[in-house]
Amino acid sequence: MEDKLILALCLSALFVVVLSKLVSSAVKPRLNLPPGPWTLPLIGSLHHLAMTKSPQTHRSLRALSEKHGPIMQLWMGEVPAVVVSSPAVAEEVLKNQDLRFADRHLTATTEEIFFGGRDVIFGPYGERWRHLRKICMQELLTAARVRSFRGVREGEVARLVRELAASAAGAGAVGAAAGVNLNERISKLANDIVMVSSVGGRCSHRDEFLEALEVAKKQITWLSVADLFPSSKLARMVAVAPRKGLASRKRMELVIRRIIQERKDQLMDDSAAGAGEAAAGKDCFLDVLLRLQKEGGTPVPVTDEIIVDMISGASETSPTVLIWTLAELMRNPRIMAKAQAEVRQAVAGKTTITEDDIVGLSYLKMVIKETLRLHPPAPLLNPRKCRETSQVMGYDIPKGTSVFVNMWAICRDSRYWEDPEEYKPERFENNSVDYKGNNFEFLPFGSGRRICPGINLGVANLELPLASLLYHFDWKLPNGMAPKDLDMHETSGMVAAKLITLNICPITHIAPSSA
């Protein structure tokens, strides 16, 4: 009798649970989610990424989108995600419903690296973020401010040209055959430009900061176990990337504090001596931030976050795009010759190029656009996060869903680009398509409220170095390599850099000035 009573109670309890589930599902409207691949418990859709056999996430996602459509639902572990792979859907998310998707997808790793989401890149949408963005747009990255650093860019580029000319003159048979490591030279150039622009000079702690920044960038991946299972304390405990990211951030903060103090001391010394600000450091980013803080123009201290954003963004994007551009020109000798002819005709007779010399170089600008199309530095735009349940193209997007726009896939889609896999700068001739965020088939810098605030600075850091390298040098591949044999594979991660170092041989065509 007792056993029957227990069984009856258990069955009754089970009935109540099942009934409550049925009632709940009947009351709660069923969401019409975007299509997507089938999922497994715990890991969600991760096995589909592994099955595509591509180490690059953007390539794997394109393969899946070709099966499931331009708006696709995935589960990355326990994280709901939507992948966008068409201009129409991108416009809906980034323009028509920009405010609904104005938050950032902040992972455990990016949270540790970028000051808990207190910066401009990964900060959540809100009053603080709007304030930081305003500082960037109205104080730091105005067209006038970017122009004010032209002397820095011209000086650093001239230094690189002299170094390459010396290498070309001094290279023996072995050196000429091996070529010059342009990754190393161009990364150093970009870092020097951004350091002088940001903190007023080549600070003594530059290498220490850049080393910490490099370690941090390697940890930024949304496939860390802690990023895939954010509710799991165990995942957070065993994950390596967040711990390394936090250690790198602490190193960067320590260096920044030293840099700030050095700059304050220098400004005080200059003021006491009546010398004013040093010409090279006048109105650098750090000076502007210190002035705003002194005047009470900022409600919260923002120096660390903004300086890290400035240095990390500018020191990564420009060299990545410049290396890809030179690699594509080496693979396409006709385009290389055409670009060189334009520069050399415009600047004929000069031993040093200035930014005034390159204003009218239309083909050079087309070359840069084509590189940004074929090799967008961020193949997946920094992910947005849905702030409230929304509808996109008839599908429901629940609050908290992360949205990834696969710009790499859109820029290589034959529905929007003729011969999309071919490097053809001429496609932009007599074409109004640009990278300012209004052409949704071409968004290398994003769009809407979250568009990259440093577009003008990034492009300025590209045009002068490229024009100078094309003007002063002819270039050859090492060891008799044919153009078609140049390896063009990219790295995996948030930034798609060229996987194999670009080693090519400079042959001085027009010697630079000695100073």
TrEMBL record:
For this record, the Gene Ontology CC terms, alphabetical, are: membrane
GO biological process terms, semicolon-separated? diterpenoid biosynthetic process
Subcellular localization, as worded in the UniProt entry: Membrane
Q: How does the protein's chain sit in the membrane according to the entry?
A: Single-pass membrane protein
Q: Which CDD domains match?
A: CYP71-like
Q: What cofactors does this protein use?
A: heme
Identify the domain of life.
Eukaryota
- Entry-linked Gene3D superfamilies: Cytochrome P450
**Which SUPFAM superfamilies does this entry report, sorted A to Z?**
Cytochrome P450
Q: Which segment of the chain is annotated as a signal peptide?
A: 1-20
Give me the residues that bind heme, please: 452
InterPro entries registered for this protein in UniProt: Cyt_P450, Cyt_P450_CS, Cyt_P450_E_grp-I, Cyt_P450_sf
Q: Which GO terms describe its molecular function?
A: heme binding; iron ion binding; monooxygenase activity; oxidoreductase activity, acting on paired donors, with incorporation or reduction of molecular oxygen
Q: Which UniProt keywords apply?
A: Heme, Iron, Membrane, Metal-binding, Monooxygenase, NADP, Oxidoreductase, Signal, Transmembrane, Transmembrane helix
The family this protein is said to belong to: Belongs to the cytochrome P450 family.
| Name assigned to this protein | Cytochrome P450
